[in-house]
Amino acid sequence: MREDDLKNTTYVFELENGETLELTGNEKVIYDGEEHNAANLFDGLKEGTYGKW
Fold it and tell me: Domain coordinates of the chain in residue numbers?
């Protein structure tokens, strides 16, 4: 995916407490003690592959 595509794509995460967090694909997020870009984290969680590697 191109950098422009990442900047123009919004990912919505629903937190355990019910709140939502909206991030562009290229934004950095700390999850489970590790830094990810929002697009990769979203895909890993959605596809069930996060933490398997």
Answer: 3-47
